[in-house]
Amino acid sequence: MGIINDxxxxxxxxxxxxxxxxxxxxxxxxxxxARRRSAGFNRPGEPVFKxxxxxxxxxxxxxxxxxxxxxxxxxxAGLYPDPVSRDLRLRDLPKAVxxxxxxxxxxxxxxxxxxxxxxTEVRDSEAADPKxxxxxxxxxxxYQTDGWLSEDSAEIYDHQVEALFTGAADAMRRAALAxxxxxxxxxxxxxxxxxxxxxxxxxxxxxxxxxxxKLQLTGLDLSPPYAEAARKNVRHWRHVDVVExxxxxxxxxxxxxxxxxxxxxxxxxxxRVRPKVIAEAARVLKPGGTFIIAxxxxxxxxxxxxxxxxxxxxxFHEPYYKGYLSWAFDxxxxxxxxxxxxxxxxxxxxxxVWRKDA
Length: 358
Ligand SMILES: C[S@@+](CC[C@H](N)C(=O)[O-])C[C@H]1O[C@@H](n2cnc3c(N)ncnc32)[C@H](O)[C@@H]1O
Known about the structure:
Elements: H1 2-37, H2 57-76, H3 84-87, H4 93-116, H5 151-164, H6 169-184, E1 193-197, H7 203-211, E2 216-221, H8 224-233, E3 241-244, E4 257-263, H9 274-284, E5 285-296, H10 303-315, H11 321-324, H12 330-335, E6 338-346, E7 349-356
Parallel strand pairs: 1-2, 1-4, 2-3, 4-5
Antiparallel strand pairs: 5-7, 6-7
Helix pairs in contact: 1-4, 1-5, 2-6, 2-10, 4-5, 6-7
S-adenosylmethionine binds next to helix 7.
């Protein structure tokens, strides 16, 4: 029996490694191609950007492989299903190729904005209604075409993120999923209300639902086209809801949710908005519930990687990221009753688990 189990385990690992290898090559190759087509982070004539911290490629590589080692361990521990068969479905190939084409043909537009340092083009569009969206939101984050405010942007977004992180984005999100699953072990999913705050196109919601199909999950995002894409992504789970709304003024009752989770939201917010979002999170969360925050690493989390983090706002329009790198969550979280429980690092992502005082 032991031999059979070992053989199954070895085969599972080989499958995972092969599949992730293909993913990394697919997205990493496209990122390399996009960089080759781009003019670089500096404008012609500008001095070449030099980070203050020395980027350590060895540390970056180590963190990359460590991410997949832990992901595989989590799969083997049964925390969530193996994504391999889903990631490599042959019938999805035409769509994947189409997305790659869309991504690569958008590179020139992204590059034009980067060279012009134009991160607010979307503000002139009809979609960027100032009555509906705050000024900080009406920007082309990452220099992406249409900002958060078009169907095309929603269609291409997940692909862009995967390419930027050379096929590691889904695995980084799963590091947060592992925390949520661990938290819910032994509970009846049908009784648990979870909010995915700033759910984007629902990529993570899909991962949650495949792991816990009966969970009462709600997603919220301020972007109408992204929220619509999220609805499509989770349409198979009829009890799952996606609403449009603002994280700093949540359209929910006090203590409505058992747990909250938020992926890659906080680095996109101006520092004055972050405490408002934290206060709203505390309001809608039940006492004793967790708020799991997954976002970029910050300075000092993995020193060898600090220098790479400095490149990010240079190459991609990220107006609040530089400050985020040394922004302290603790005083703001503690003030509204959250206590930090633990954290784990997942390549370029840090997952922190906070608990609301009972
Ligand atoms: C970097 S994306 C992350 C999306 C998703 N969580 C993921 O894992 O890919 C940031 C998301 O935050 C949303 N967002 C930004 N500011 C927001 C706000 N004040 N309220 C609600 N959503 C917001 C954007 O519309 C976008 O979908």
